[in-house]
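Hi! If you just cloned this repository, the fastest way to understand the data is to look at a raw example. We've pasted two of them here, unedited. The first protein comes first, obviously.
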Amino acid sequence: MGKFWITAPEALPYARVTEGENTVHKLATFCVLLMTGGAAFTLDSDLDNAMLLPGRIDDNGFMEAGYNGLLRIQREFGARVSYIDGINPERDLLAEALRELTERKPDMVIAHGGQNSEAAQIVAAEYPDIRFVVVQGHVTGPEPVQL
């Protein structure tokens, strides 16, 4: 399991954004707008986002694209970001990782992948003050939001 907090722009590793760059940018922009309720924000904002990636951030596929989107949120919006990757896609393990991500009280937790749907619904109900988003999930209701 990987667990990392990226808090300063200098700590930003080189992130390769491939053919999905426009999609990743749209996702990053949408997530920040969702989190702020459409309110104006600056690059010097205090945004704090967390992401759960059940796969590896270097899979050359979906998980890496999500990770690159998180880095882009950091780079373009000045957000502080954290993530956990490499979690086996079992509901209880995913829920435990989501709870761990909420410890810092981020503005938003992004659960990347439909395998997070059930765990995100459970944990979102426990933390009503934190916005949850599931990417490519199958959830209904106001929280978590599904992309």
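Ok, and the second one:
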Amino acid sequence: MTTPRFVLMRHGETDWNTKNQYQGSSDIPLNAVGRAQAGAAAGWIAHLNPVAIWASPLERALDTARAVASFTGQQVNVDPRLAELDYGDFEGWTWEQIEKVEPGLAAWRDGESDGRWSASGETGAEVMARMGETLTHLDRVTEPGPILVCSHGTAIRLGVAALVGWDYPEIWKLASMGNCCYTEVIREFDAWRVERFNVPPQWKFSG
């Protein structure tokens, strides 16, 4: 029997990544290094034989998924619920800039309590709910096997927490994911388990 599993892959590098700027819902494209990362990782990820490929609609994740699909010949499906946490007015800011005007968000960063990223942003709990709902739906409607989801660092960690049943603060026990690294979550005996986390692809890449 084929084990249901998710391969949750973070997108390649962007210019905002190199400057430690919060991207969130801002549609920042891959830079030259990110495009090279996606291309170098794609063959290895394709080797995992995904039965379906899904992506956030944000260009950096969508283009990462397309790189894999160029090897597998599959369609890239898009779901807006796979997008990154919306950081609202703080998108484009660094943490050093944010903490000067909103020091209360340090509790969010440190996993002590949830919070909303400005009036127009989201909370961690909201993203956890939509990611959990989406991943559960994809598992239900897809044949058993690896489902590749190209998404974003915070969204992926919150999605993992939703699947395995962790409370919100527990997610910050997981380190930030690297660009084009992936996490595997498998379903065994009707329970989701983290099998691998933040795995770098076996790529040949010089950037």
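That's it. A detail worth noticing about the second one: Strands lie at 5-10, 52-55, 76-78, 146-151, 182-188, 191-199.
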